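TA notes, week 10

Several of you asked for a full example with nothing omitted. So below is the full record: structure tokens for the whole chain, then the designed sequence directly under it. When grading your own attempts, check the secondary structure regions first.
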């Protein structure tokens, strides 16, 4: 099959073949750099991208892309679609890299660098750095060629028998395969995005928020300007009693223009709200995943839950007109200008200045009260989460009359604070805008008592008072949401700070090691010299001057008294914690060289029961999450086999949905022994070089223990078992 694409350069576009607009696999690094640069995500063409290790499979490629994308300040996210959806996906996934398997038997695999494109023509960068325009269907055919080749021949005879032109035959084959294979998963596409730890401003540029913001401010200002000119026109006509039709038409035109700009402002406000909300959500959720377990533990998980819920407040406020509040500032300035131009300008402008200070002070007080209120709310959430987690223990062991002791005290403090916030709100909402009308009219009294003012000056002053009233009404209507947003943003600061931390990158050595072969029998896997660890800087050492040697193929048992530091050592060896001193090497590399992610892939630890978790999801997800998700059919077959070998066959028979059964907190309640074997299965399926089991067999009866242990011996290349004597 020959694939064609129109070249976009030159005066007379000509058809060129796949080789011209796709990159050889060996040049994937160059394709990545060029795509990052041309799509505006990198500021320069980064040099020195390491070569991709061979042989290539999807896993190696994903790992390598993870490694190679970090110097370009981008991330490559694997995208999965179905055979029937390929064309749609190609139209929305850019910028992206696509792995195109060999089109013909014996051909070579290629890579396509897809730029942001229109719907009907996709733009791709060729190895000659020129941009080609490709029909979505041509790229679809290239990407799906391997699948089409496998399933297409069966259709060939059928299509030959029908009298159709060659073009129609291709279309018919595409349509039939689309129906037959529509749900088949398709992989080999990686979407390029700005790295999530990049500055918020850079990320907002990517979503075109600054431009939208400017359009919003400009259209709002224009609407205000045209309204003011309209007022001036009507005022002038009224004072001079000259209501000629031309003036009325002019006024109508001004009002219409103001309406158009107002509609544009409302439209861009909606887009801004959605854009800001999604940007913040993405950023802060990334921040929450960047937190170290110790940071969460230090503050309590409920505190963080409370903070994460605040994300919704910030984005809702954006939608609820927080921007309108900011813009009422513009109206206040315009009102100040009018008041100083009108009759008795000095007095009215000063009165308005003093009133604005009062407004500012009351809003400041509102902010402070809200901050205390939010802290109380977070404490209550934390308390509630603690109570829910420990509910069963309290049920069994605490006297029921004490269950709600602290809860009642917290609740009554919270209600008192809510009442304080509400009282201030009433004052702000009722007094500020209307109070100003009274103050403004009192400010006019000296003007009226003095020499008669000019009618124009009086009209301008009245217009200024009304405009200020309108601006204050808008300000106090939106102020509560703005105050909430400021308070919520302050609470989200730890997540925002965590989001600035760069992700742990896979290093060149890490990538090579991950793609390379297993260690030779007897080769040193772990080497630790003088290893020490303490939980706090001034705390006591839990481990001190510790020497460990683990070789490939070893089966080791680590015994020791309670609190002796066995689990801590397991956490250090598996890269979950970092040592306070000494040297720790995995196959000759330290953690910095290898990268934390690669280290944790290669040394898997099954933590003690209370430190491990069954996620709410299918059993298949729970055992395969350490390998990859979504899985392919081989993964599923292997996962079921591992579960059966660990003695979970009975459980699988009893579960109505087998491997697809929902487990976890709200699903099938697994017994202690079943859970511990699921943890073992999860670790075995990760395929790590070294496996550490921390008291994983404690809950098993002797027969099951023997079966599980024998299987673990058989499957793990190197094993360290922690157990009590
Ligand atoms: N976050 C922490 N801060 C301070 N000390 C801690 C912390 N976590 C654990 N420790 C202490 O470190 C010591 C070693 O704990 P570790 O869990 O490694 O022991 P272990 O040998 O696995 O014990 P066991 O056999 O009872 O599971 C214990 O004294 C424990 O109290």
């Amino acid at each position: 099959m020959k694939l064609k694409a129109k070249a976009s350069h030159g005066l007379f576009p000509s058809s060129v073949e796949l080789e011209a607009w796709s990159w050889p696999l060996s040049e994937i690094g160059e394709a990545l750099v060029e795509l990052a640069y041309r799509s505006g995500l990198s500021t320069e063409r980064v040099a020195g991208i390491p070569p991709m290790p061979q042989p290539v499979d999807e896993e190696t490629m994903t790992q390598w892309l993870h490694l190679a994308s970090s110097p370009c300040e981008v991330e490559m996210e694997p995208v999965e679609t179905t055979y029937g959806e390929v064309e749609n996906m190609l139209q929305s996934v850019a910028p992206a890299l696509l792995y195109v398997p060999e089109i013909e038997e014996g051909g070579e695999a290629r890579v396509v660098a897809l730029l942001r494109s229109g719907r009907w023509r996709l733009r791709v960068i060729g190895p000659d750095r020129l941009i080609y325009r490709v029909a979505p269907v041509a790229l679809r055919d290239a990407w799906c060629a391997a699948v089409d080749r496998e399933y297409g021949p069966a259709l060939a005879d059928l299509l030959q028998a029908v009298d159709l032109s060659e073009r129609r035959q291709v279309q018919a084959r595409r349509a039939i395969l689309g129906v037959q294979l529509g749900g088949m998963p398709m992989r080999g596409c990686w979407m390029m995005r700005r790295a999530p730890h990049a500055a918020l401003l850079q990320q907002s540029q990517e979503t075109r928020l600054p431009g939208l913001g400017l359009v919003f401010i400009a259209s709002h200002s224009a609407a205000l300007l045209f309204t003011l000119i309209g007022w001036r026109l009507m005022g002038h006509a009224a004072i001079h009693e000259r209501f000629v039709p031309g003036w009325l038409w002019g006024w109508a035109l001004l009002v219409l223009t103001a309406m158009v700009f107002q509609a544009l402002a409302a439209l861009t406000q909606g887009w801004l709200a959605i854009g800001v909300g999604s940007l913040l959500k993405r950023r802060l959720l990334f921040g929450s995943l960047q937190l170290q377990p110790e940071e969460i533990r230090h503050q309590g998980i409920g505190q963080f839950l409370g903070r994460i819920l605040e994300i919704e407040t910030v984005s809702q406020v954006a939608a609820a007109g927080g921007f309108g509040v900011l813009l009422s500032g513009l109206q206040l300035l315009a009102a100040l200008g009018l008041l100083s131009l009108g009759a008795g300008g000095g007095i009215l402008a000063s009165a308005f200045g003093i009133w604005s200070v009062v407004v500012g002070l009351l809003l400041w007080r509102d902010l402070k009260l809200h901050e205390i209120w939010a802290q109380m709310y977070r404490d209550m959430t934390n308390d509630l989460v603690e109570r829910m987690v420990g509910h069963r223990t309290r049920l069994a062991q605490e006297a029921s009359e004490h269950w709600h002791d602290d809860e009642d005290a917290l609740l009554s403090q919270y209600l008192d604070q809510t009442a304080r916030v509400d009282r201030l709100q009433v004052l702000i909402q009722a007094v500020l805008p209307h109070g100003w009308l009274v103050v403004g009219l009192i400010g006019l009294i000296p003007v009226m008592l003095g020499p008669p003012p000019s009618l124009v000056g009086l009209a301008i002053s009245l217009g200024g008072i009304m405009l200020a009233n309108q601006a204050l009404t808008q300000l106090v209507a939106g102020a509560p949401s703005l105050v909430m947003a400021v308070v919520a943003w302050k609470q989200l600061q730890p997540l925002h700070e965590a989001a600035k931390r760069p992700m742990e990158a896979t290093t060149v050595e890490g990538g090579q090691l991950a793609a390379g072969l297993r260690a030779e029998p007897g080769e040193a896997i772990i080497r630790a010299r003088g290893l020490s660890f303490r939980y706090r800087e001034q705390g006591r050492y839990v481990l001190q001057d510790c020497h460990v040697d683990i070789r490939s193929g070893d089966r080791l048992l680590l015994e020791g008294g309670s609190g002796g530091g066995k689990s801590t050592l397991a956490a250090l060896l598996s890269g979950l914690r970092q040592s306070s001193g000494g040297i720790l090497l995995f196959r000759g590399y330290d953690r910095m060289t290898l990268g934390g992610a690669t280290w944790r892939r290669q040394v898997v630890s099954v933590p003690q029961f209370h430190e491990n978790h069954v996620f709410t999801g299918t059993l298949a997800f729970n055992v395969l999450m350490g390998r990859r998700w979504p899985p392919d059919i081989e993964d599923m077959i292997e996962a079921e086999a591992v579960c059966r070998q660990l003695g979970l066959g009975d459980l699988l028979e009893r579960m109505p949905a087998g491997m697809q059964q929902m487990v976890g907190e709200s699903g099938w309640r697994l017994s202690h022994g079943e859970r511990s074997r699921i943890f073992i299965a999860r670790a075995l399926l990760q395929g790590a070089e070294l496996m550490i089991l921390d008291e994983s067999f404690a809950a098993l009866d002797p027969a099951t223990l023997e079966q599980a242990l024998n299987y673990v011996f058989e499957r793990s290349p190197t094993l360290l078992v922690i157990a009590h004597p």
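Residues 200-500 form a domain with the ABC transporter transmembrane region fold fold (CATH 1.20.1560.10). Use that as a sanity check on your answer.
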